[in-house]
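Quick one, tokens below. Sequence please?
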């Protein structure tokens, strides 16, 4: 008789784990990341893209042309220079012609790191009017 009473007075069985606290936590994380993602600012370069079908204008003829070849060689004013010498050359040419912009002409196979380094050197030279173009 005692064995039978135990079965009748036993507590109800648990049918699983309560997921409500975990769902609350996940929803709070989701809200946190949505709110903080709005305030993240990405910095980048502002590019003046040419369409390739434009005719050269007078301002293009006055531009400071920097060429980057497929092997990574850099030419400023038809002279081969090192990446660290780009800033000094651009400053010198900009002082001679203050209204001129910079045109970076890179080969399609040119290393991207060299292109970024040249663009960074031009920015450090104080020139913000930079146009990029590519060649085959």
């Amino acid at each position: 008789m005692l064995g039978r009473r135990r079965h009748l007075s036993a507590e109800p069985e648990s049918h699983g784990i309560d997921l409500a606290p975990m769902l609350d936590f996940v929803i709070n994380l989701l809200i946190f990341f949505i709110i903080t993602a709005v305030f993240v600012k990405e910095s980048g370069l502002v590019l003046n893209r040419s369409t390739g079908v434009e005719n050269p204008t007078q301002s293009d003829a006055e531009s400071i042309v920097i060429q980057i070849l497929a092997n990574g060689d850099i030419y400023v004013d038809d002279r081969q220079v090192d990446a660290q010498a780009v800033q000094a050359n651009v400053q010198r040419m900009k002082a001679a012609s203050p209204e001129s912009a910079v045109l970076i002409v890179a080969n399609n196979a040119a290393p991207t790191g060299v292109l970024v380094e040249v663009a960074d050197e031009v920015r450090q030279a104080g020139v913000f009017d930079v146009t990029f173009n590519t060649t085959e």
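The longest helix spans residues 20-38. The mean pLDDT is 77.
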